[in-house]
Amino acid sequence: MEIEIKEINSVITVALKGRMDTPASQEVVPEMTALQDKADKTIVLDCSELTYISSSGLRIFLSLRKAAAVKGGEVIIRNINDDIRSVFMMTGFLNLFEIENA
């Protein structure tokens, strides 16, 4: 699992690459938790190269969304594949997040 974070003006883009299974989720927790400090901004989670997400990964996304709700920011999820879209549908995440496809 690779993660690349870029901040331009008030938009933080997080590119996620690979599988966000349970072990990989634990690896990215420090970086994703640090983003909660900046949750007053727009955070874009670019999932164009994310191939899988586990419940641990979903919890990370949800924690970030909760922090943004408290601080007045927003979390946008961009470019999810069909498999991840199905997971989001089954878990109700499609209703919790703004989903964009480029």
Structural commentary:
The chain has 102 residues and is of the alpha/beta class. It has one domain (2-100): Transcription Regulator spoIIAA, CATH 3.30.750. Helix content is 44%, strand content 36%. The chain contains four helices and five strands. It has a five-stranded mixed sheet with strand order 1-2-3-4-5. Helix 2 links the parallel strand 3 and strand 4 (74-78). Helix 1 (22-35) packs parallel to helix 2 (55-71). The longest helix is centred in the middle third of the chain and has 17 residues, at 55-71. The model has no long low-confidence stretch (mean pLDDT 95).
Order of helices and strands: EEHEHEHHE
The main sheet orders its strands as 1-2-3-4-5
Low-confidence stretches are none
CATH fold-level label: Transcription Regulator spoIIAA
How many extended strands?
Answer: 5
What is the number of domains? 1
Q: State mean pLDDT (0 to 100 scale).
A: 95
| Rg, nearest Å | 12 Å
Give the DSSP E fraction (strand runs of 2 or more residues).
35-45%
CATH architecture: 2-Layer Sandwich
The class by helix and strand makeup works out as alpha/beta
As a percent range, the share of helical residues equals 40-55%
- Biggest β-sheet description: 5 strands, mixed
Q: Give the N-to-C terminal Cα separation.
A: 22 Å
